[in-house]
């Protein structure tokens, strides 16, 4: 305290992308809200998945061939996407809300490495959390379903794709949240835009004539993204990977807009 | 070294910074002085590349800040106290910043220790007082051992010990040959801290001068005279460049004459003087005088002036 000089720091200190990713990882893991949102994501995937599976077993389907054992065991993903999406928004809007964005951008004056760093750190974290969550939910769900011989093995065609695809879907939703947060710089706006993008198109489409809505349905974010996590092909939807690739375009485009704006606008 | 050339920032139809040209040299503390709303923070954000100038330019150590590949080595900045996510600890806040430039973990501990936050660094920063926020901001600025230090109102919210400590730190940083640029809206703070002053008001440069010259140039001394017959004395003190005003209790305030001159004038007229006092205008008064026309929020400053 009484010491008014600081020791010198002779070490080299050049910015690079890897360092910025590590920095963003520290920011991500050092907030309680991250821990809560990730716990909520896992709890929703597994908890809702098990609850719904248990319900379905209690009322077995009349025609077992139409029963999608994978989708049923992974139904929690539909709710978990909100927890992870909100975390994505918060990860960047939290910095705008607290003015710490200026500290961040003063340290990374090129700005874009910060945005890429956030996307990589957040995307990897989400994936690493999601894969075990969906796998656990799938395996536990199948063991419940096996009571009625409704279960399906990981070795069946499309099952591994659907399970891992669900984890990828969660990651993409999280990145969509992050991109919207980066673009709008505001928590409420980012969360509203995320929910709007995931839900509103289906609602609007419902108002249109069936011929139009059936043709357009497959291109909407949620139906496109959901295709990868199902073993049964929805006749109205795109193929699993085509649909997922289309879904990924949404975060990519929004992130691109956010990057363009980050370079131009005052922080 | 900071070089601003015709630096201008317009927000809508309001000119926040209006053609500022100045140089901040290494080896001394330069105070950046101006009333609230004068454009100090905007200028500092432009120096750091956070806000883009509408026109003009500003270089830090010879380059635009954004062009530096080791930014924390070039500039350490404190822009707003408590620019930290309230859920994050000071330690993690600093560690995340350090990581961007590969600064070692031990340096984080070093700056935390140096600003006296070692006891609270692992706690969530949401509970920090303004003073602790300032200390964290100073730790942030010191992290990269920078050539140039830019601090926006670093003394706000600090207790007496804290203020003394920051002053000593700034002076030692300058003595090590660094460029130290510190803003304040209080002249008294800068008079004891800075060697050079850049004074702005309404976004325009008012003065760019040494502290001593600033005081000398702006200072006006007045003499307070209490007498039994102010009405009789006042006419005898008139002349070019001399101002006399009547105050309460038979007191005159006279500018443009020394106490000797007034005393002799009174003696010659046989007027009894009860009090004869020379009053030096304080730095604060000089500053307020200089920036009077440039004060943006006049109503807010009236009650606050000593």
UniProtKB/TrEMBL annotation, chain A:
Keywords: Membrane, Transmembrane, Transmembrane helix. Signal peptide: none annotated. It comes from the Bacteria. The chain crosses the membrane at residues 35-55, 75-94, 115-139, 159-184, 191-208, 241-260. The keyword Acetylation does not apply. The keyword Disulfide bond does not apply. PANTHER family: INTEGRAL MEMBRANE PROTEIN-RELATED (PTHR37305), MEMBRANE PROTEIN (PTHR37305:SF1). This is ABC transporter permease. It comes from Micromonospora tarensis.
UniProtKB/TrEMBL annotation, chain B:
It comes from the Bacteria. Keywords: ATP-binding, Nucleotide-binding, Transport. PROSITE patterns: ABC_TRANSPORTER_2. Residues 2-227 form the ABC transporter domain. It holds the Pfam family ABC_tran. InterPro entries: AAA+_ATPase, ABC_transporter-like_ATP-bd, P-loop_NTPase. Gene3D superfamilies: P-loop containing nucleotide triphosphate hydrolases (3.40.50.300). One of its GO terms (molecular function) is ATP binding. Coiled coil: none annotated. Belongs to the ABC transporter superfamily. This is ATP-binding cassette domain-containing protein. It comes from Micromonospora tarensis. The lineage of its organism: Bacteria, Bacillati, Actinomycetota, Actinomycetes, Micromonosporales.
